[in-house]
Amino acid sequence: MLRGGMTLFGRFHGYADTGLLVVKSAVAATVSWWIAAELLQAQAASFAPFSALLMVYMTVSRSVHHSVRYVIAMVGGIILAGALTTLLGEGMLTFPLIVLVALLIGQWRRLGSHGWQVAVAVMFAYQYFAQATDWRASWIQLGVLCGLVVLGAVIGVVTNLVLVPPLRYQPAEDNVRSLSRSVTDCLAEFADAVNEGLPPRDRAQELWERTQELSRLATQARLSVDDAAESQQYNPRRLLARAPSFTGHYFTVNALARVVNDLQSVARALDTDDEADAASQQQWLGSYGELLSSVAEVCRLLGEVHSAADLGEDGELAERLDRTQRCCQELGNRLEREGLDSPDRWPTFQSLSTDAHRLVDDLASARDELAQLT
Predict the structure, then answer these.
(1) In the predicted model, what is the mean pLDDT of the chain?
(2) What is the mean pLDDT of residues 87-109?
(3) Angle between helix 94-105 and helix 116-131 axes, rounded to 10 deg
(4) Which residues have CB under 8 Å from 332's CB, separation 6+?
(5) Residue 352 CB neighbours (<10 A)
(6) In 272-315, which ranges are continuous DSSP H helix?
(7) CA neighbor of 252 nearest in space, from 231, 223, 221
(8) CA–CA separation, 204 vs 271, rounded Å?
(9) pLDDT value, residue 39
(10) Helix 347-371 vs helix 316-337: angle between axes, to the nearest 10 degrees?
(11) What does the pLDDT average to over 294-307?
């Protein structure tokens, strides 16, 4: 029920963001057209709203970075068309040549997705250049085109900067907490599966598939944290409110992703035809289930910790982690006492024990990383 509610909440935010983006795009295009056509009486006024429309992105940072590449591509294409047409003259061979050169320049990786704009600018500029009455008028017209491109790009960025620039904190928080809950639930499933011995192979396969789903959730959570951190850049709204740091979120997501990888290894170890028939093996697996339950509690708490202030010297997370470390140590001692670490008895125990130590070490590393945050 909770997961479904979170999905609806995420969809609502997505629709709201898309609607806001559409409105801002319309405003940027309209303002650009009014300035270019009404105030400046520019002949090629459509270049301004076209540029403004392309520069309205989901975040201010993205608008700024893309506008720089876009302006370089468009202005470069316009100047290229003027230079080659002046040098070679107009003709059927000139046009394909400048388009070819523009397409080659557009491959420059620094232009990114705007590389194709070089060729677009060349084609439009060639048309206006050819229609001019003389060379001087041609270059004046190309200068006007460059100005309109810059005008539209600036208005697009300013519109995105002024009209409710989004701060995407909440989706990141929700995705990190959702990942934490999902990992916690998965660990509980693993604990239940081993509490009474080795699970059947089909159950082990189900656990493996569950960890695959968690890997996708971890990737989604990491992307949402990236998006939230990007939404802060150049955003004036972060000056009006206390902007959170997302470093702690990165540590949390990375730690949970490492736990998921460890669980995949546990699932592979459980996918065996062996049977835990001895009482010592049954007891050891029961202790292993207790360890996984303790790890689940730590992962649940990690979803609520994003800074050193959330930790505390005597906080619940530290207490749970200390308990988990003691469980892991006792598990290793019992493995040796019972002789279950012998390769000729049952190698699966060694693999599971190694995975348990890796789980605890990964969580301890995450706690240490979070403790270093200010």
Answers:
(1) 83
(2) 88
(3) 150
(4) 353, 356, 357
(5) 23
(6) 279-302
(7) 221
(8) 5
(9) 92
(10) 160
(11) 82
Check residue 9 and give its pLDDT: 44
283's CB contacts (< 8 A; 6+ apart) are 334
Rounded to 10°, the helix 60-88/135-162 angle is 180
Measured between its terminal Cα atoms, the distance across the chain in Å is 36
CB 17 within 8 A of CB 23: no
Q: Please state the φ and ψ torsions of residue 124, each to the nearest 5 degrees.
A: -65, -40
Q: How many CB atoms lie within 10 A of CB 281?
A: 20
Pull the structure tokens for residue 338. Answer: 């019972």
Question: What SS3 class is residue 274?
Answer: coil
In this model, does residue 344 exceed pLDDT 80? no
| Lowest-pLDDT choice from 7-11, 69-73, 209-213, 280-284 | 7-11
Helices (H), the chain: 2-33, 47-54, 60-88, 94-105, 116-131, 135-162, 169-194, 201-232, 237-240, 247-270, 279-302, 316-337, 347-371
How far is the C-alpha of 115 from the C-alpha of 75, rounded, in Å? 12
Total-model pTM: 0.71
| Residue 336 and residue 327 in contact, taking contact as beta carbons nearer than 8 Å | no
Say yes or no to pLDDT of 129 above 80. no
Give dist(CA 350, CA 335) in Å, integer.
8
Check the CA dihedral 191-196-197-202 and report its sign: negative
The first and second tokens of residue 10, run together, are: 């995420």
- Quote the DSSP letter at residue 272: -
Long-range pairs, 102-110, Cβ under 8 A, ≥24: 102/77, 105/76, 105/77, 105/80, 106/73, 110/69
Instruction: For residue 217, give both structure tokens.
Output: 């959730």
What is the SS3 assignment for 75? helix
Burial class for 286, CB neighbours closer than 10 Å (0-12, 13-18, 19+): middle
Confidence of residue 335 (pLDDT cuts 50, 70, 90): confident
Rounded-to-integer distance, Cα 302 and Cα 240, Å: 28
Dihedral sign from CA coordinates of 301, 283, 265, 358: positive
